[in-house]
Design goal:
The protein has about 600 residues and is an alpha/beta fold. The protein has 15 helices and 30 strands. The strands form eight sheets. Strands 10-11-14-17-18-19-22-23 form an eight-stranded parallel barrel, surrounded by four helices. Strands 3, 4, 7, 8 and 9 form a five-stranded antiparallel sheet that branches. Strands 24-25-26-30-28 form a five-stranded antiparallel sheet. α5 runs parallel beside α6 and α11 packs parallel to α14.
Length: about 600
């Protein structure tokens, strides 16, 4: 079977005649595949350093590649039933998919399969999806599920990027999770890590050192994106998840550590090709907020850390570490609603250099904003949820802003029901590595003066992981209804503008809607001199009461609808040259439009 007939460049692929194996190992002259309970078969080497052969084997067969006298799992293994150090398994990708046409994203929901339920599997997680669909969430963003070492972890230290973790179930279990979501009207995107590999269970160097450079990034060994085999590995991996798992997109982790952004362009291109006309979404995390990922490489949306940081300062008043350049003022939220990122090249004192790139030209749907996500909850040291850090009124007001403002909102698991379960950093590693990871975590959190000296939960302790599992009996119906109501009221029209009403209060205006958010004391507008307030307004929803256009209670938000007015009769037509005709008509037309 020629390589050209394969679906992907590497890995074990099932055919009618057997299994075709292909692996990149350019430094080696000989390499074979060893089938458990079967034969050892030498693979043929081509001029690009790929070894391949069609072998008499079936789905379910377990195998390893043999280099010299040592056996290693497949770098592109589709499943590791015994974990990253065990044999790889041949997987049949055939699956009876339901019909699915995709959705327009309205609200993202980030989940970690291992802690989303007490069971911690794809199958148990699928049982809870109807509760999310009922609220109005329509995109599930799954934290990395690729195979990693240990019995629990966040998934960002994956080593087998083509294999769903055996801890969560089989590849077909993941497919059923996705298909169940689709039947409920939920899209599913997967968080993928293309900037480093985990420290335990990665055997890529045994096949070729060309996967890595001799440099380090903040996560580990820097990848060698100049090598075509490495670029192909990641682009093909992206296509694989979209094609064989019917995912609706990907979230690219920490893209600032991908030194050559053109790799991201290749990933985006291959993912869209694999979708075969289906609408997919590629989102990215990028700490420097570089919009070239959108403008040049074709990424659809970027996570907006500016929005989160300003929100945290507004809710807690703490301006330390990477929050120091944010004030949490009304002006910041108006600016972000209108212009995207807050920092678009201005000097950023925390990093002592300019931050961000101009994003004035980007549509609000190019940004994903959030009050909670996996990183930011864990960075509170105790994994505290938003409602444990601020007042109930501010939680309701900021939830309203998150779900109604123009940027796409993201919720973190349990946020929609008021969960008090923490989300801590947890990673199950061997003792020597576990201590190094714990030390690194302590040092990272020392940037927060308020956390110095605080005892941290050990990342490698089983209790740390177990403490993070959602309790599905802990569901605050009032908070669930808050999210359901706000998502039902979410506004699709283009924003007309926004205005500051005080240091802590502001408004956002759409053609027929007006949102006022007040994070300070009671707001009394004795003079309605802001043009965006013009018109007659009816309260659609408010987080506190009583409320009207001139009185907004402390720490609250209110959404108003424009009240249609009966237009005044047109005056009799005037003859040509009648004084003031044009002025009167223009003035009346402007007033009518304003209401």
């Amino acid at each position: 079977m020629a390589a050209a007939l394969r679906r992907y460049a590497i890995g074990a692929e099932l055919t009618d005649e057997g299994v075709h194996f292909r692996v990149w190992a350019p430094e080696h002259r000989a390499l074979s595949v060893v089938i458990e309970g079967g034969a050892e078969v030498e693979l043929e080497r081509d001029e690009d350093g790929y070894f391949s052969r069609l072998v008499d084997a079936k789905a379910g067969a377990r195998y390893r590649f043999k280099i010299g006298d040592q056996l290693f799992p497949d770098p592109a293994s589709r499943f590791q039933p015994e974990g990253p150090h065990g044999p790889s398994q041949v997987i049949d990708p055939a699956f009876a998919w339901s019909e699915w046409h995709g959705v327009e994203p309205r609200c993202f929901y980030e989940m970690h399969i291992g802690t989303f339920t007490q069971g911690g599997t794809f199958a148990v997680a699928a049982e809870k999806l109807p509760l999310l669909a009922d609220i109005g969430i329509n995109v599930i963003e799954v934290m990395p599920v690729n195979e990693f070492a240990g019995t629990f972890g966040w998934g960002y230290d994956g080593v087998d990027l083509w294999a769903p973790s055996h801890l969560y179930g089989t590849p077909d279990d993941f497919r059923r999770f996705i298909d169940t979501a689709h039947q409920l009207g939920l899209a599913v995107i997967l968080d993928v890590v293309y900037n480093h590999f985990g420290p335990d269970g990665c055997y890529l160097r045994r096949f070729t050192p060309l996967y890595f450079t001799d440099r380090k990034n903040e996560w580990g060994d820097e990848l060698n994106y100049e090598a075509q085999g490495v670029r192909e590995f990641f682009a093909e991996n992206a296509a694989y998840w979209i094609d064989e798992f019917h995912l609706d997109g990907l979230r690219l982790d920490a893209t600032q550590s991908i030194t050559d952004y053109s790799v991201i362009g290749e990933i985006v291109k291959r993912a869209h090709e694999a979708a075969g006309g289906r609408k997919i979404l590629i989102a990215a995390e990028n700490e420097p907020q570089d919009v070239a990922l959108i403008d040049v490489e074709g990424v659809d949306a970027l996570w907006n850390d500016d929005w989160h940081h300003a929100a945290m300062v507004a809710m807690t008043g703490r301006r330390e570490a990477y929050y120091m350049d944010y004030r949490g003022t009304a002006q910041e939220f108006v600016s972000m609603a209108k212009h995207g990122f807050l920092y678009q090249g201005q000097f950023y004192a925390w990093q002592k250099k300019p931050r961000g790139m101009p994003s004035l030209h980007l549509h609000p749907r190019r940004f994903i904003s959030y009050l909670q996500n996996h990183d930011q909850i864990a960075n509170s040291a105790r994994g505290e949820r938003m409602q444990q850090l601020t007042s109930p009124g501010r939680v309701r007001a900021m939830t309203a802003l998150l779900l109604l403002q123009p940027q796409l909102p993201l919720l973190f698991q349990g946020q929609e029901s008021g969960s008090t379960k923490p989300f801590l950093y947890f990673a199950d590693h061997k003792p020597e590595l576990a201590e190094a990871v714990a030390k690194g975590r302590r040092e990272f959190l020392e940037q927060f003066p308020s956390l110095i000296g605080r005892e941290l939960d050990a990342p490698h302790a089983r209790e740390t992981f177990e403490a993070c599992k959602l309790d599905w009996e802990e569901r605050d119906e009032s908070i669930i209804e808050l999210h359901r109501t706000l998502l039902r009221l979410r506004i699709d029209d283009a924003l007309i503008g926004g205005a500051v009403l005080s240091e802590d209060a502001f408004l956002l205006r759409w053609p027929q809607r007006l949102l006022i958010v007040n994070l300070g004391r009671d707001l009394h507008l004795e003079v309605l001199d802001e043009p965006l307030l013009a018109g007659e307004w009816t309260v659609l929803w408010s987080s506190e009461s009583p409320v009207d256009i001139a009185h907004i209670p402390a720490e609250s938000a209110a959404l108003f609808a424009a009240t249609p007015l009966t237009p005044a009769p047109l005056p009799a037509a005037r003859g040509e040259g009648d004084e003031g005709a044009g002025g009167d008509a223009a003035g009346r037309s402007d007033r009518d439009r304003s209401t």
